[in-house]
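User: Hey, my collaborator sent me this sequence without any context and asked if I could get a structure. I don't really work with proteins. Can you help?
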Amino acid sequence: MELHSATFYDLHCKICVLLLGVCSALRLTVPSHTFHGTEGQPLQLSVAYHFNITVSDIQITWMFEQPSKSTTSLFMSVNQTVVSDLEYQHKFTFTPPNASLLIKSLHFSDEGNYTVKINIAGNERISAHAKIHVTVDVPVTKPVVYTEPSAGVVEYKGNITLKCTVRNGTRVSYQWMKNGNPIEASTNFSLSPNHDTLSIVPVVKEAIGNYSCLATNSVSALQSDVIIPTIYYGPYGLTVNSEKGHKIGKVFTFDKGEAVQFYCSADSNPPNNYSWIRKAENSTRVITYGRYLEVASEKVTQKAEEYRCSVYNNMTGKRDETGVFVVIIPIGLAKMTQKENFLSPLAIITGISLFLIISIFLVILWTRFQPHKVIQWKLQSRPEMDYRKAQSISGHEDALDDFGIYEFVAFPDSTGISRVSSQSDSGPDVQFQDFHGTVYEIIRQIPEQQHDHQ
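Assistant: No problem. I've predicted the 3D structure and written it out in structure-token form, which is a compact way to encode the shape of the chain:
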């Protein structure tokens, strides 16, 4: 069982305290229990030890154990006298009482476990030991990334494989990066067991980016150059815009006499092929090619014309098209109709329609109820004496029951001449003229005449 030197020291002290009541200290320390060395380079196995007793002899022993082989004694010293294994003495430097060991030039055969043991003899005997594991590696060279296929693929129709290789290096670990961030296995990314191969399946537009490979081992780390896989996609996000005029949805308005330039854009790889189509007077024709189209108001034969931008990606085989309406209006009118947030044509039409409907509804209500209000006002404004006169004629206990809202009654004279009734001995002449009045007025007038006759 391998113990850290400090742990070994603490355990040794506890045993001393329990058995003797006094701890005779020997403290052995190493900076690490694993040393990583580079082939062909020297490696210093640093060891330090301290004690607080009076000593007569210090014995230091170094032993080496290769994997699957027996342990070999490299050096043994008593004070400054050194006895070494003749097979290994040219490979190491050991100078007691310094317990450190220098490996002059590392080879793969030097990889293994090294054990140092120190014995101290004096007024008492104490000992300590530590084990150090040594690895030997070849530094990695700069990795190179290869792409398959190198010509590029169409999204959703192919896969991409990235392979990372190094010319030299032992125990190499690989880490893939996209835009400087580590890549982990996911829906679109899959990694080989040792991570030297990255597969993008399926290929999508979002996979576009800067890819690199980081190759590392215990003694080195290098990153490859950035590579950008070729992915064909699109067109996406087709739009038509202009630096002049006023845009309301897909409608552009501009003053008469102006010239406006439209430009069409869509995200695509490779770049799209653009063409402009004019639709007017039941005809459709291609008028120009390219992203830009210039329209002068003098050339607009109607008040509104439609222009359509058509895009085509010859690698993906996809096509898209969008249109814009050009409206010529009197100078300055377009600016008056613009609001801060630009109302859509549908919102403007809806608002006007609601206004007209409400206006018509109010007119209908006014024409229906206004005459009745006038009649009711006349009835309520009659003096009380008129009600009392009507009561004597009605024959009811309360002549007010005869009052109400009545329709207008007219007695026209076909000859346009006043009619005169025949005279009688029993009463004065009563002359009826063409008039317009309410039934209430007739009731009110005729009884008064009959009363005079009585």
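In plain terms: The CA atoms of residues 74 and 274 lie 80 Å apart. You can pass these tokens on to your collaborator as they are.
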